[in-house]
Amino acid sequence: MSRLSAPALAILVACGDASATPESTETTAQATTAQATTDSGAATPGDSSDGPASSTTDVTITPTTSSAGTTDSSTTTMDASTSEDTSTTGEPAKCTPVSPTASAVCVEGRQLLVGRRDGGVLAPVQPYRIAGVCWAPTGVGEANTQGYADYYVQYGGADAPHFQSLGANTIKTYDPFAQTPAALAVLDDLHSRGIMVAMSVIVYHGDAGPKNYLAAVNYFKGHPAILMWIVGNEFNYNNMYGAPDLDAATAIVNEAIAQIHAADPDHPVAVGHGEVPTPERYMAVPDADIWAVNLYPNLDLESRFVAWPGLSDKPMFVSEYGADAFNNGIGQEDQASQADATETLTLQIFANLSADDPDLACLGGTIYALTDEWWKAEGPIDQHDNGGFPGAIHPDGFANEEWWGLMDVQRTPRLAFSALQAIYTQ
To answer: Looking at the domain 6-65+125-424, which fold is it?
Structure first.
């Protein structure tokens, strides 16, 4: 484990600061009613369900098709003698999955190596660039009160073509899919479009006791579309939505990581964190393979990438970033400013890809989010409201919770969709 060198990173924590960076906190129904204490005070998960949330920590950085559980008779496993690794790092045998149906995925240094399985045959592993988007689908009059598991099935057919058109190769979820054949069909469709899934399997402390997350891991781990598992979503802000304190939440995170590793040796496990962790927080989660870090620092991601190598030799990816499409300064939708932020931040991510240079810090990013959600701010869930809170968001310093989509709730693309598409498809 690397430790932070003092000159490399200075982190100042300002609890409850109105200019703090926002967070997303996708929740389940239980989490909606659970009281969660955070690093910067108390908050209920119902107040901050997905996308930016007001209870945050302000951080200043000064740099010096095979379905799960089945075996396809045409499947072959990767053989080092016949499948040469054409990347500059890694050996094919190191990434060979135990499952005869999973893709090859492994971490080496700060790189994520992936060999997709198509038609039962594994491709040679290559450094993987996450060109992704967060997926939190709801429609008009719908709310995240029971989690997103069923919504992923409901909207999978409609949204998969948009991911493909965007040029995305990865989606990040906030819950596991429903454990049904219909959900496997959604994964089949995504896989056929070249899209892999970073699946959050536990964000709520109440799932730790019954180990619900292990049921999801065991159900989906053999599917070739699975890229990684994610434990927690900004757990340092929300204490896994209701754990007694951050230490208790950290214990849940560590137990889940260990048990997922034991259940599935084929996929890395990421920890979902808000902002670059302090050295203490980083060392408290020693067995995460990847750090999924949500970052909302206005238009400055670069300082985080400069700081990361001083903290860790593990890979990270920007698991949320972006800007909403409503400008409080002019009192109306401002697609141009959202598109500018999307382009600026994504280009900063792409300038720091470990896939291009193993000494760089970042695997890529999953922008928040594909579509608007009308249930998040105060007001009727069948109306598009402008509520939110102050935050380090371009251009107005305010996070309008119901306006974060690259597309509106009816799936009409905004300018930000085209801006990201131009980068992802170049």
So the answer is: TIM Barrel (3.20.20)
Gyration radius of the chain's alpha carbons: 20
8 confidence band (pLDDT: 50, 70, 90): very low
Tens-place pLDDT, residues 171-184: 999 999 999 999 99
Cα–Cα distance between 204 and 325 in angstroms, integer?
29
- Is the pLDDT at 37 greater than 60? The verdict is no
| For the chain, domain boundaries | 6-65+125-424
**Please, which residues bridge with residue 415 across strands?**
none
Residue 176's alpha-carbon distances to 85, 149, 215, 244, 286, in angstroms, are 31, 6, 10, 24, 24
User: Residue 341: is its pLDDT beyond 50?
Assistant: yes
Mean pLDDT of the region 241-256: 97
pTM above 0.70, yes or no: yes
What percent of the chain has pLDDT above 90?
Answer: 77
The lowest-confidence range among 39-48, 325-334, 372-381 is: 39-48
What pLDDT is recorded for position 146?
Answer: 86
- Three-state SS annotation for the chain: CCCCCHHHCCEEEEECCCCCCCCCCCCCHHHHHCCEEECCEEECHHHCCCCCCCCCEEEEECCCCCCCCCCCCCCCCCCCCCCCCCCCCCCHHHHCCCCCCCCEEEEECCEEEEECEECCEECCCEECCEEEEECCCCCCCCCCCCCCHHHHHHHHHHHHHHHHHHCCCEEECCCCCCCCHHHHHHHHHHHHCCCEEEEEEECCHHHCCCCHHHHHHHHHCCCCCEEEEEECCCHHHHHHHHCCCHHHHHHHHHHHHHHHHHHCCCCCEEEEEECCCCHHHHHCCCCCCEEEEECCCCCCCHHHHHHHHHHCCCCEEEEECCCCCEECCCCEECHHHHHHHHHHHHHHHHCCECCCCCCCCEEEEEECCCECCCCCCCCCCCCCCCCEEECCCCCCCEEECCCCCCECCCCCECHHHHHHHHHHCC
